[in-house]
Write a structure and sequence with these properties.
By secondary structure, this protein is an alpha+beta fold. It is built from three helices and eleven strands.
């Protein structure tokens, strides 16, 4: 699936780039996007992620989209996740991770790894994460 890390202290969102197709092949894709003053990372169903991203870009007008997606947001004010209801849940510790490699990345962050190193570590233990590691600055 994915590993995406957001860190308010460093002002970055970092992701790997592996996307597995229906035939088991994989390609490199972008998983972190700009939406107004925020960076948004999407993990899960790519089509649903695009709908959620558009909903954020138009100012959360109407009901939030449906679909299997995890959304991570980084603003100058901190890190948040978006729940299926559209509610933004702020993460007090200032960093968070989503996707299938999230637990590995969070463990690495708690142990002092940089956001980029946390994603690289997750790629070593999560078969659904891989490819180029990309860092996007807020």
């Amino acid at each position: 699936m994915t590993t995406i890390v957001a860190c308010a202290k460093h002002g970055v969102m970092v992701s790997e780039s592996k996307c597995t197709g229906p035939g088991g092949d994989w390609m490199s894709v972008i998983k972190v996007f700009r939406a107004g003053d925020a960076l948004v990372g999407t993990a899960g169903d790519a089509a649903a992620g695009e709908l959620w991203l558009e909903w954020l870009r138009v100012g959360k007008q109407g009901k939030p989209p449906k679909g299997e997606v995890s959304m991570l947001i980084l603003r100058k004010t901190g890190v948040a996740v978006i729940e299926p209801s559209g509610y933004e849940l702020r993460i007090e510790r200032g960093f968070h991770a989503v996707g299938s490699g999230a637990h590995a990345a969070l463990g690495a962050l708690h142990a002092g790894a940089s956001p980029a190193d946390a994603v690289r570590i997750a790629c070593k233990v999560d078969a659904q994460s891989g490819g180029r590691v990309r860092t996007v600055r807020l």
